[in-house]
Amino acid sequence: MAKETTVTKFKLKAREILSSYAAFTLEGELSAYVQRGKDCFTLSERNGIAKGTSDGEAEAIYIDNDKAIKSVEKNIVPLLPKKVVIKRPQDILSACAAFDLKLVKGAGPNKKNWGGNACLAASTVFFQTLLKASEFRIWELLAPPKNKFKTFYMPNIAFNMVCGGEHVPGTKQDIQEMFFFAMNEKSIKDVFVTGTKFFRQFEKNLVRDGLPTGTAKERGFVFPVKDNFEGLKRIQECAQQLGLKNEDYAIGTDNAFSEIQKTEELRQEGKYDMRFSGQGIKTREQLIDFNWSVVQSAPNFVTMEDPGSESDLEAHRMMTGKYGDRVQIVIDDAAVTQLRFIIPFLASPDRAKRCGNSVLIKLNQAGTFTETRLAAEVVLGLADPQLVEDFLDARGDLESVNQALADLEVPSLEKALDNIKKGGFSAFFSHRSTEGTSEFLPYMPLLFGSLTKKLWFKAGAPNGERNLQNYNPMIRAEEEMRAEKIRTVVSGIGGLPKEVTIKLPSKTMAETGSTASGSNSGESPAGC
User: What is the DSSP string of 286-303?
Assistant: First the structure.
């Protein structure tokens, strides 16, 4: 049991630091005076935030760094509390919610007045300081009491292996990213062991074929892909070389199809220009048929992000209505980690009226720690309706959300959250949410692993310092929990949304003595 902790004398500042994307970003630094039992000391923490590559007007808007630094000093420092008393983990989350609510009320629409970067730098370092002061571990904050807490679910990890689209000049792959997942390991460390073996084998295959082995921003491989299916076939080949069976791994994509609906004409007509592969203009219906052919390319294809453009909600609904019982459909560009979008996108009990069954969660899109946490909690069916209402109201979104729900014949916000809870959806936490020496991003899935297995995580390939800053904290957390006799398992097939059923070939499954499918009962072949 942690000692009662009092935190006072907060001093906040911001500075520019180098970003891993060859640019400068913002870092928040906070010092505070801590009294814990008889111990008194000054604590200093800092957190760098993502430069951000998606700067849409629907998400938190970053301002020039010099203006953001001044904004922190002028607008945000006066909002810091005089004192925070921490007796239990919830006190940390409550203090952060109170602080972040002030940021939301003052920062203007999408934080464009104060800067989303200024707000996020301050919000994340405030949380980080309270967490460090308290001596609680991140995975304890939402966990039940120790005597009722026996299993912790680590997220499924998406390792970026093949890049295309805007990432790769001259590519013939319209899909932006292709992922490998190790789904049947007994620990998160074993997941990374398999991920690194897979990465090295993939590289050997490229050398074998006389292809370049360079990597893109997320460290996935960049090479002259011949078509939209070569990368998927190479992932399958690599898995076979390593002796992985269908139940041992999975495949997924981030289509990023806003990139092939760039013009206003295409958006108005609901059409897509598959310009990278040279397949030409496709109707919305033809695009969904293409998506389905990608899903069918492997029996263990499990997840597809952004099956349509950010402005084409009908494409998302068509994909979900037709195939939402077969594949995890992750909403990113259309939802941008905003409660005002996520809630109506998932609230209908009719699958054909939903835009997906999973949501990508990014700190830099939300703009504060609490809004990011609430977005995940809404998707996972864990949110406090009153806190959700408070933040929607503070943003000025409550009326529009209620109207969107009425259009769906969902009578109230509380009913919408209940429908989402019953849906059994999943949260997919994403990179581009941390920079510098920060290890903040892994906090997000580690918050929820004591409560649910519907967790996914991506921070690029298993190489590159920035990616490893996101992955290594999970190995440390697992070690801590196992030392305290807490069972940790990897989510596996059970991490898919409740409605999704994956049927693997019976011959392959019979060879391993396992069942023939993972289903919406949430049980994977590995019993995770």
Answer: HHHHHHHHHHTT-TTEEE
The DSSP bridge partners found for residue 360 are 428
Hey, what amino acid is at 372?
A: T
If you search the block for the tokens 């049991």, which residue do you land on? Answer: 1
Give domain 152-518's CATH architecture. Alpha-Beta Barrel (3.20)
Q: Compute the distance between CA of residue 467 and CA of residue 298 in angstroms, rounded to an integer.
A: 27
Rounded to whole angstroms, the Cα distance separating 259 from 324 reads 23
- Whether the pTM exceeds 0.85: the reply is yes
CA distances from 515 to 65, 495, 503, 526 (A): 54, 17, 10, 9
Taking CA atoms, 413 is separated from 36, 59, 377, 392, in Å, by 40, 22, 14, 11
| Nearest-5° Cα angle at 396, 392 to 397 | 55
Kindly give the pairing relationship between strand 426-430 and strand 156-163.
unpaired
Look up residue 315 and give its amino acid: A
Which residues in the chain are classed under CATH 3.20.20.120? 152-518
Packed helices 398-407 and 413-423: angle between N→C axes, nearest 10 degrees = 60
Give pLDDT, residue 280.
96
Q: How far apart are the C-alpha atoms of 164 and 278, rounded to whole Å?
A: 13
- The domain made up of 5-136 has a fold known as Enolase-like; domain 1 (3.30.390)
pLDDT mean by block of 10 residues, the chain; 528 residues:
88 91 88 95 93 73 96 98 97 98 97 96 97 96 87 96 87 95 96 96 97 83 94 98 97 96 96 96 98 97 98 98 98 96 98 98 95 98 98 97 98 98 97 65 94 94 76 94 95 97 66 37 33
**Span(s) in the chain for CATH 3.30.390.10:** 5-136
* Cα distances (angstroms) measured from residue 155 to each of 245, 258, 487: 20, 27, 14
Question: 293 exposed, middle or buried (CB, 10 Å; 0-12, 13-18, 19+)?
Answer: exposed
Which pLDDT score, from 0 to 100, does residue 436 have? 57
Could you tell me how far CA 280 lies from the centroid of its own chain? 31
Burial of 223 (0-12, 13-18, 19+ CB in 10 A): buried
